Amino acid sequence: RAAGDTIKVGILAEMSGTFADFGQQITNGARAYMKQHGDTVAGKKIELIIKDTTGPAPDVAKRLAQELVVKDEVDFIAGFGLTPNALAVASIATEAKKPTIVMNAATSVITAKSPYIVRTSFTLAQVTQPMAQWAYQSGVRKVYTVVADYGPGHDAEGTFKKTFTALGGQVVGEARVPLKNPEFSPFVQKVKDARPEAVFVFVPAGELAVGFMKAYRERELAKAGIKLLSTGDVTEDGVIDALGDNAIGVISTHQYSMAHESPENKAFLAAYAQVAPQQRPNFMAVGGYDGMAAVYEVVRKLGGKVDGDQAMGVLKGLKIASPRGPIQIDADTRDIVQNVYVREIKKVGGKLYNVEFDHFPAVKDPGK
Ligand code: DHB
After folding, report:
1. Same domain? 159 vs 90
2. How far apart are the C-alpha atoms of 30 and 324, rounded to whole Å?
3. Which of the listed residues 19, 53, 83 should we mutate to test ligand 1's pocket, taking the one with most ligand atoms within 8 A of CB?
4. Which pLDDT tens digit goes with each residue over 130-147?
5. 84 lines ligand 1 (CB under 6 A)
6. Which of 4, 22, 70, 182 has its CB 3.0 to 4.6 Å from that of 14, i.e. a possible disulfide?
7. Do 185 and 109 fall into the same domain?
8. How many structural domains is the chain composed of?
9. Which positions ≥6 away from 71 have C-beta within 8 Å?
10. To which H or E segment does residue 275 belong?
11. Could you read off the pLDDT of 37-70 as tens digits, one per residue?
12. What number is the ipTM of this complex?
């Protein structure tokens, strides 16, 4: 095949190190979309070029993005589990006029950093605002917040406080834990000593979520009557088995659960099982899957000739029937509009799931 017959999608993701699960989920989600829909669109073969950012490493992400543009001559840049890696690439997206699809990183400000960035994941502000509202509606008045000490954690902390206090609730304490190798026990003990009615938590998916849950159990917060409210990052499907039965009853808000009932989710789960039979897909896999749906739509609408500005024209306002429910790329902010679900961890058929029981429809990013 001649080069002109191929559309190249460069994926920058965390494929090794502590955050390697992020890259696995994102790339397997992208592959699942291709498995389900074939790898040819408008006569062009779609090719993924995957590069490993190795962790939160902005310098590496920037160098690899340059390589994708200059050497590989990609048509799209995509991926990004972690916020610092997405932020590092914004200036390159602008200079090269490359449509750049953020498939996970969830700090509000990312899409404001380049007119060539769109997001198919979520923002922490978007899932936290409904949690603060739900908590207040459920009678909770005193909350302690615990967040990872970087962009998305700061957004979660600020959004929770603003929403909850505006309603009449009180934030009785705020803790920030480091992104790298956090020791949760002392933070969790402080929460316990403050005697709030609930603790609200955001830490990134994976190992940090397991670490927090372990400290929550060991310090016996549930026994002390302190409810756990979290964003779905803490209870996500990729990690839920590792949390164990201790996690039953935890309430979270997020955009995707494996247990979501829809034909689109059924098809997604079937395709994902073909690509990665050993792994439960989480919200990052869905971000990757929907990101590829966006790529396919651009290539289809532009008849296989991808120009950066024309691609952005297709992406702005784009609607997708996602496995999580209907989503839309807001034409003004290029950020995602979607339902946010309230879920409770339950055992269904012997396995743990985030079972959706309420939802806030078509939530925009309140951080804009
Ligand atoms: C980010 C990373 C996560 O693992 C997550 O669950 C949410 C957000 C981020 O870096 O933006």
Report:
1. no
2. 15
3. 83
4. 999 999 999 999 999 999
5. no
6. 22
7. no
8. 2
9. none
10. helix 263-275
11. 999 999 999 999 999 999 999 999 999 999 999 9
12. 0.97
